């Protein structure tokens, strides 16, 4: 406070004010802003899209692995014949 007084920032009126006591209510749910609700909805949509893409990629991966096994078997058979 002393430094603030020397700089002329603090006034005597501000110094004499006691900090107001706040009474907290029990639980009050926070208000949702429009921006937050829109963000959350878009986020949910993006998550669903990523889950769908992941499922498609896993399905494609399984198909490709099966093809790879078949090609490996063909190569093995050709090598045994030669």
Can you give keywords for this protein?
single chain; 82 residues; 3 helices; elongated
Compute the average pLDDT. Answer: 82
Distance between the termini: 95 Å
The biggest beta sheet is recorded as: none
Q: How much β-strand is present in the residues?
A: under 5%
How would the global form be characterised?
elongated
Individual helix count: 3
Query: Ranges with pLDDT <50 over ≥5 residues?
Result: none
Order of helices and strands: HHH
Query: What is the number of E strands?
Result: 0
Radius of gyration: 34 Å
Q: What structural class do you assign from the helix and strand content?
A: mainly alpha
Percentage of residues assigned to helices: over 70%
Summarize the structure in words.
With 82 residues, the chain is an all-alpha fold. It has a domain at 48-82. It has helices at residues 2-7, 12-16, 34-81. It starts with a helix and ends with a helix. 0% of the residues are buried.
Q: Gist?
A:
The chain has 82 residues and is mostly helical.
Write the layout of secondary structure elements.
Elements: H1 2-7, H2 12-16, H3 34-81
């Amino acid at each position: 406070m002393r430094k603030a007084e020397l700089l002329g920032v603090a006034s005597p009126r501000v110094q004499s004010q006691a900090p107001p006591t706040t009474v907290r209510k029990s639980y009050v749910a926070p208000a949702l802003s429009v921006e937050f609700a829109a963000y959350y909805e878009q986020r949910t949509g993006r998550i669903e899209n990523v889950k769908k893409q992941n499922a498609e990629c896993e399905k494609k991966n399984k198909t490709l692995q099966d093809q790879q096994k078949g090609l490996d078997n063909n190569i093995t058979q050709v090598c045994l014949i030669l």
